[in-house]
Design goal:
By secondary structure, the protein is an all-alpha fold. It is 61% helix and 0% strand. The chain has one domain.
Length: 67
């Protein structure tokens, strides 16, 4: 048995909830997480954290108030 078969951690659950929440707010399509193990959570986070960030990214936020 490897670490991938262990139950999902609380931190992974929190990260997945954040990803799904950000996707909902930004309009990105990210399927709901249905896994139960650390390995499944790790794969989900790895696959969707970047997509969620990019879809929520607004280049105007980085510009700030420049003179």
């Amino acid at each position: 048995m490897s670490w991938r078969d262990d139950p999902i951690t609380e931190k992974q659950e929190q990260m997945i909830a954040t990803i799904e929440e950000n996707a909902c707010m930004s309009g990105a399509f990210i399927p709901p997480f249905t896994g139960k193990t650390k390995g499944e959570a790790c794969d989900y986070i790895g696959n969707y954290i970047y997509e969620c960030h990019i879809s929520a990214y607004n280049p105007h936020e980085d510009a700030g108030d420049r003179i």
